[in-house]
Amino acid sequence: MILRAEEVKKDFPRAGKSSNYFTAVYPLDFVLESGQFTVITGKSGSGKSTLLNMLAGMLTPSGGKVFLDDQDIYSLDEKTLARLRNEKIGLIPQGHTALLSLTVLENVLLPYILYNKAQPPEKKAKDLLDQVGIASLMEARPNELSGGELRRMAIARAMLMEPSILLADEPTAGLDSENTIAVLSLLRQAADEGAAVLVVTHENEADHFTDHVLTMDGGRLKG
Ligand SMILES: Nc1ncnc2c1ncn2[C@@H]1O[C@H](COP(=O)(O)OP(=O)(O)O)[C@@H](O)[C@H]1O
Ligand SMILES: [Mg+2]
């Protein structure tokens, strides 16, 4: 599976500017292949999250296209795209997306429960929680978790469906060094098992785990 962006760009409206819009990502090409672990570093505000969300099918580009294999994903209707995301793309977004009324275990199982009626893969979810070091919290509610524990829950959830593409936005933010290594090792392992993995981060803690490091600066990607 290959994720490919062609001339993808994003403008946001911005009040008070002479042009009335602001280019967060200038037209760029990007390829993410199976088995590769790529990192994009860059300062806060450089456009990393904007690019990642466009690659994830979550943010429609102002120009250009995103292809999953040969499928132009933004040509799909919202329902088909949602299904494709659920099956193929594991997204670890910046910020929190936990459902507060569900337990940690139920949150991790959610991507499965959304589209499947059969018995959810609890053992797999528990194994993932164990690998990110929060198995003891599986019956807790998200509001009982620290920021770092919520990030780790989001990582377990993103990996549940064994997606062929894993996109992680600052996955180690707020984690201590031990858990940073645990999370990056897990993402590395996913790449070694054939997933295409992209991490964006303003830190350089992931450099040892990756195949490629790119830098984003002012909406432009540099090799
Ligand atoms: N929804 C939005 N509306 C307007 N501006 C935005 C929006 N999202 C991001 N931006 C702007 O785009 C730029 C890049 O943001 P972002 O992609 O979040 O950067 P990073 O993830 O590298 O910190 C920032 O200047 C930010 O203010
Ligand atoms: Mg960001």
Describe the structure.
The chain has one domain: 3-Layer(aba) Sandwich (Rossmann fold). The chain has helices spanning 48-55, 78-88, 104-113, 122-131, 147-159, 177-192; strands spanning 2-13, 21-33, 37-41, 63-68, 71-72, 89-92, 165-169, 196-201, 212-217, 220-222. The mean pLDDT is 93. It is an alpha/beta fold. The two termini are 22 Å apart. It has a 6-stranded mixed β-sheet, sandwiched between helices. A 4-stranded antiparallel β-sheet has the order 2-1-4-5. The longest helix has 16 residues, at 177-192. It is built from 6 helices and 10 strands, in the order E-E-E-H-E-E-H-E-H-H-H-E-H-E-E-E. Helix 4 (122-131) packs across helix 5. Magnesium ion is lined by residues 48-49, 94, 169.
Summarize the structure.
The chain is of the alpha/beta class and about 220 residues long. Helix content is about 30%, strand content about 30%.
